[in-house]
Design a protein that fits this description.
globular, alpha/beta, binds adenosine-5'-triphosphate, single chain, six-stranded mixed β-sheet, binds magnesium ion
Length: 216
């Protein structure tokens, strides 16, 4: 279970202070598929990055089961993130100098995991014949599927996606959504998707809407 309590994140100070997130509390159960929607600048990415331990709140707490992020050392948090959370970003964020396969395997190298299961992931994502290529040699959909493979390589229980279909055409976007839904329904992964696409949000089990840093 992911539980966030009274989370606030401000940037800057004085006149230029921005409250990106304003006292947000939310519980997400294991195996849920949740969409986070809201206007541009409403705080969606800020919230997702905090849930993923990529950023630290100004105040408030984030619990993954009984672990609270604020009580963990940076190295502990990095290790926890590596093993338990997979990230999928809007711009794929593959490392251009590495092949798709090297990108996918990077988190498992960092976690000192054996790469068991990589072949299965490639075949499930239909990228087996493309993994020796560099990102620039792949289509957008293939790059996003490689990014999803990378998110899955350490078998995390939680997958966080920020606009995962934002840079894909309709067909590739639907494939990516179908895949995320399968990971949720067949493997019980908790999936949290930030999106401004109502059609995508409606495919999730629950929709959480944010406005001006607050859940409405
Ligand atoms: N590093 C930063 N420094 C200052 N302000 C920031 C920073 N990151 C985000 N913000 C501000 O915080 C607010 C929330 O930003 P956030 O990126 O969470 O929005 P979002 O809902 O993801 O928007 P979008 O749909 O455009 O991606 C915005 O007003 C943004 O300008
Ligand atoms: Mg965003």
């Amino acid at each position: 279970m992911i539980k966030i309590e009274n989370l606030t994140r401000t940037y800057g100070k004085g006149e230029g202070k921005v409250t990106a997130l304003d006292g947000v509390s939310l519980t997400i159960n294991d195996g849920e598929m949740v969409a986070i929607i809201g206007k541009s600048g409403s705080g969606k990415s800020t919230l997702l990055n905090l849930i993923g331990g990529l950023d630290k709140p100004t105040s408030g707490q984030i619990f993954f089961g009984d672990r609270e992020f604020g009580s963990m050392k940076d190295t502990e948090l990095s290790e926890f993130r590596l093993k338990n959370i997979g990230f999928v970003f809007q711009f794929f964020d593959l490392i251009p100098e590495l092949t798709a396969e090297e990108n996918v395997l990077l988190p498992s190298r960092l976690a000192k995991n054996k790469n068991a299961g990589a072949e299965d992931i490639y075949s499930a994502l239909d990228i087996t014949d493309r993994v020796k290529h560099y990102p620039s040699e792949l289509s957008g959909g293939q790059q996003q599927r490689a990014a999803i493979a990378r998110a899955l390589i350490n078998s995390p229980d939680v997958i966080l996606c920020d606009e995962p279909t934002g840079n894909l055409d309709k067909a590739s976007g639907e494939e990516v959504m179908a895949l995320l839904k399968r990971l949720n329904s067949e493997q019980g992964k908790t999936v949290i998707i930030v999106t401004h696409d109502q059609g995508i949000a409606e495919q999730c089990g629950r929709i959480v809407e944010i406005s001006d840093g607050k859940i409405i």
